[in-house]
């Protein structure tokens, strides 16, 4: 059984999300002058893009959850999805003022049945304000 990995990247110059960057861009038919990278490794080796990995989880609407997504649970608490390096796992961080009383790193798998993606750090940064 092959483990599935998916990645996306935020293009800081164009202020745009590029999905499925793990597949060579040639397969996506992106014009080279429009996108600066041809293959996955190029996204990792530049300062123009911020690469995010898929958590291998989906929200209650079956949308893929990536790191730096913003999610909301059924109680209305909002969280940022992030990689917790010390524990080698994805976790939830409560927004300041939005359920922050819940504490530090929440286990994403404990909430997965009720989480819904409400945005991400790059396209919806105002949610943190």
Strand order of the largest sheet: 8-7-6-5-9
Q: Specify the structural class.
A: mainly beta
| Mass-distribution shape | globular
Instruction: Compute the average pLDDT.
Output: 82
User: Could you estimate the helical fraction of the residues in percent?
Assistant: 10-25%
Radius of gyration over all CA atoms, rounded: 16 Å
Question: What CATH architecture label applies?
Answer: Roll
For the biggest sheet, the summary is: 5 strands, antiparallel
Task: Estimate the strand proportion.
Answer: 35-45%
Tell me about this structure:
This protein is mainly β and 129 residues long. It has a single domain (7-128), classed as YopX-like domains (SH3 type barrels). Helix content is 10%, strand content 36%. It is built from three helices and nine strands, in the order ββααββββββαβ. A five-stranded antiparallel β-sheet has the order 8-7-6-5-9. The protein has a four-stranded antiparallel β-sheet with strand order 2-1-3-4, with no helix packed on it. The chain is globular and about 40 Å long. The termini are far apart. The model has no long low-confidence stretch (mean pLDDT 82).
